[in-house]
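Re: folding output
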Amino acid sequence: MRKVLCLLLMGSAACSASEHTVDVTASERESTISRFEQDVAEENVIHAIGIYEGGSNHSFRNHPIEIVQIDVQSQGGRGIYLALSSYEPVQWDIAGPGVDAVRGVYVDGYHRHEVTGVPGNIVTNWSNRRGPSAKAEALSSDWGGSAQAQNPGAISCTYTYPGPSGGGCGSAERFMANARSRFHAPVATFTGTYNAQAFRIHRLP
């Protein structure tokens, strides 16, 4: 297992593709990148991404949706699942030469999120589901089981590993546990940062 922290410089990622599976691009502010990476042999794996925002053009009662791009490179025949989390509303735009390798997408967040670029029937959108009845309904329809058995609980956002993120955001461990419960696959990477506009997912070694 490899746990790595690196600094995202303004407008460019200091951690290159040769060092990490997931690249990050942010143009608005300097953020620290928090990572979890581990070697996995399974045919299908999970890549988890957590941010607080995709842009800073928001304020009290003003929460415009921001576009965050997920560029999936060729995965060499391996299937991947994406677990995506943000506090502020995001349209996750999934594209790239390896987009057909995406087997499923799980989205969680405080505000409502959208996903484009993949079929809607592979997306589990658990964002903006607050309150016991909403959670129970989501678990029944999306997980097919009880909360305790199938899912540790909703995540408003998470952008640090391993402990809880600031600003009321939850923990990466719980978010990753949700993804494992949903997809029955191991988490290969978690990439978290406060502000980001794009991620590129490379083929695992």
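--- second protein (sequence, then structure) ---
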Amino acid sequence: MTSIIQNISKHISLTPEEEALFLSKTETRHYKAKTIIQNAGQVCREGYFVNSGLLRSFNINDNIVEHVMSFACEGWWISDMYSLLSQKPGNLFIEVMEDAEVVVLSKVNQDQLYLEIPKLERFFRILIENSLVANQERLMDNLSLTAEERFEKFCKKYPGLIQKVPQKQIASFIGVTPEFFSKMKSRMLRK
């Protein structure tokens, strides 16, 4: 069973025929590190499931400061959800951080699959709900936790990323400058 089918089977059951139909509507692509697969300002027309590798979504503000929104490692989905769902230009870039194999599902094919396999709507609803919960939790953490607490939570949630992701991107994800992050990490190591 492929990784994406295993991912789906966590929430719904597909028959072998439905699995084959689903897979026929996807495309597997290989990307090299540092490839931008979605640009801010464009309408997002695809969702991405990571078979291997690491991706991130981020935006760049008017002061040319990057804000990391999410990371996606093996077994995770990533997209510019606002743009994909609204079909309006998005504000996120999606970058491949290390060579990756990605399963791509276009919005057109996803909508077609909803008609042909209605229970897939339940699967994607669950993904969207989980994403909404995670984003709300992160927003509340940014409002109520210290930077150290946010970093500790990041380490627990993404233990495999600490060694893979540049410190400046971890700093951006938890909402601090790279300089503050470096000092904070030194203080934490001394404790």
